[in-house]
């Protein structure tokens, strides 16, 4: 038996396919879809009419369009719900991140506040300590200088030892420590420079020389002293140079040096052999303050020198066109100046016409007794 039935679910795909392939869908027309099914013949039954019949079923186009519209609305609704859910989750994620950042900022702010409180507390403690420190009564000095100390103690102490004492020089506002040499040539010497091996670095700017540097700072102002320079050579020969008057100008006059009469066995290297080598009355020079008189340069032997401090390895001294004395020379000078001797220099102390190599030197001063 041959028969035909209409299947709606199989019609829709064909309709969708037809719309995508350009098949015209006139609402006045209908689409006919048929599908054939074959059943085995029933025993003893004849086909009706003796012919194979077909039965057709039509679905109107407006029904198909309605079905498609409903399906589109359903898909759009699902998509809209998905977008709303995604938006809600995104906003929640952003809100969580912002809250986490705010918590971190709050923690950091609390730490900064705590640190500022500690700094303020520490600053208050420092100010309180400074106030207490300056409120303390100044340390009692032993005398104006080592000469004064010797004079004050020799009547009560059988033997005054050398060592560190506290002095308060005239015309100064504070007390400080100095080393007093009480055993050498009658004692009472204030040591202003001591080099035991010549290795101390004197490559210093002007401010260091003004403030004083080393283990003991010494500043003498407007006071006249005797200057004694003790020299020791590499082969342990001892010599000295002494000046019966020694004083320095103020800083406004660049600490110009003034020397009295010379006595000793090492020669008067401060004054040299002629006026061009004379360093008496010369102002002090440093690597950054040049008062050496080489304007624009000095001719020393066959060499042209623009700065004596540079020539002497950036050291400070009373240079006058360099001169023959520099007790502040640094140990690197000999190598850096290609064999020119500019280390601890006292060029008038010679042996067989050759300047001695000096390993140690001490400069000390002692007050001159005056009628003033």
Automatic annotation (TrEMBL):
One of its GO terms (cellular component) is extracellular space. It comes from Scomber scombrus. This is Angiopoietin-related protein 5. Residues 34-53 are annotated as: Disordered. InterPro entries: Fibrinogen-like_C (IPR036056), Fibrinogen_a/b/g_C_1 (IPR014716), Fibrinogen_a/b/g_C_dom (IPR002181), Fibrinogen_C-term_domain (IPR050373), Fibrinogen_CS (IPR020837). The keyword Ribonucleoprotein does not apply. Residues 1-18 form the signal peptide. Pfam families: Fibrinogen_C. Residues 137-369 form the Fibrinogen C-terminal domain. Keywords: Disulfide bond, Signal.
């Amino acid at each position: 038996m041959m028969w035909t039935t209409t299947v709606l679910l199989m019609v829709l795909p064909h309709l969708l396919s037809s719309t995508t392939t350009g098949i015209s869908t006139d609402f006045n027309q209908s689409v006919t879809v048929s599908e054939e099914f074959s059943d085995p013949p029933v025993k003893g039954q004849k086909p009706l009419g003796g012919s194979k019949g077909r039965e057709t079923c039509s679905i109107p186009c407006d029904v198909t369009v309605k079905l498609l519209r409903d399906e589109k609305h359903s898909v759009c609704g699902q998509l809209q719900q998905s977008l709303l859910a995604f938006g809600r989750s995104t906003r929640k994620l952003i809100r969580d991140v912002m809250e986490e950042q705010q918590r971190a900022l709050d923690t950091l702010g609390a730490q900064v506040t705590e640190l500022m409180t500690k700094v303020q507390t520490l600053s208050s403690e420092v100010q309180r300590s400074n106030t207490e420190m300056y409120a303390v009564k100044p340390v009692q000095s032993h005398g104006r200088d080592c000469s004064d100390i010797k004079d004050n103690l020799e009547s009560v102490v059988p033997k005054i030892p050398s060592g560190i004492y506290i002095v308060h020089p005239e015309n100064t506002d504070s007390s400080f420590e100095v080393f007093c040499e009480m055993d050498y040539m009658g004692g009472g010497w204030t040591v202003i420079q001591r080099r035991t091996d010549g290795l101390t670095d004197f490559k210093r700017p002007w401010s260091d020389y003004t403030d004083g540097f080393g283990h003991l700072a010494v500043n003498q102002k407007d006071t006249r002293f005797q200057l004694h320079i003790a020299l020791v050579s590499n082969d342990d020969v001892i010599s000295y140079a002494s000046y019966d008057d020694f004083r320095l100008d103020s800083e406004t006059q660049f600490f110009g040096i003034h020397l009295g009469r010379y006595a000793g066995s090492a020669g008067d290297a401060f004054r040299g052999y002629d006026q061009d080598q004379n360093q008496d009355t010369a102002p002090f020079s440093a690597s950054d303050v040049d008062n050496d008189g080489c304007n624009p340069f000095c001719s020393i032997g066959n060499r042209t020198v623009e700065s004596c401090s540079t020539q002497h390895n950036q050291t400070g001294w009373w240079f006058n066109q360099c001169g023959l004395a520099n007790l502040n020379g640094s140990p690197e000078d000999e190598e850096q100046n290609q064999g020119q001797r500019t280390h601890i220099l006292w060029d008038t102390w010679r042996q067989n016409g050759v300047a001695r190599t000096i390993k140690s030197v001490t400069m000390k001063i002692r007050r001159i007794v005056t009628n003033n």
